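Minimal example, chain plus uracil.
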Amino acid sequence: MPAERLQKYLSRAGVASRRAGEEMIKAGRVMVNGQVVRELGVKIDPEKDLVKVDGRRVRPEALVTVMLHKPYGYLSTTKDPQGRRVVTDLLGEGGPRLYPVGRLDYDATGLLLLTNDGELAQRLTHPRYQVPRTYRVTVAGEVSRETLGRLARGAEVAGRVVPAEVQVRKREAEKTVLEITVWEGRYHLVKRLLSQVGHPVLKLKRIAYGPLRLGRLPRGGHRFLTPVEAAALQTGAGRP
Ligand code: URA
């Protein structure tokens, strides 16, 4: 592993923010291989060097990302003051603490990522990185070609034009099943977009996020990303 700045290592280890880590270093609370380090900018080898804060060893957790198939009726959070079920209930005990990457609505299902890599989560959800999300959506009514064109050009949600790629997957009596891709993740975005063009959403399932696809992961199940998927996700989030 390449050398890393001591304050970055402290922040990865969950000891302190980078700024607070700098204060700890200046205050002489941080030791590297038995020596107090007081200057900022010192680089360490995270694999080999032994770092202590106030005499206690600190080490970053391994970075982990899992894919979950979120079922209906779970909140995309880690705790709910009202005691409703939350997605982390589905991960079981004993693993690292993971946080959902963005949200799926309580009544939505499908691909939800959970990670302890805060920087990756930030990139995946920030509109600057334009990470595509694809949903399979059942809407009320028959969606016309004009409406598909309007969505492709970009319908307006809360004052911003949101382009979407849309394909019709199935036409049923008074309902249409669509696949819709958007490149940002605002609150209720797909529902608002489709309501805007006169087709309220009846069912919404996320089937892809960046380069990842939900595939056959069973509802309520989760799995670690493969190394190939993890690398593709980093690239998709604009990390070299
Ligand atoms: N758009 C929505 O409206 N809901 C979701 O859960 C995700 C995208």
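The chain has a mean pLDDT of 94. Helices lie at 6-12, 18-26, 118-125, 145-153, 189-196, 227-236.
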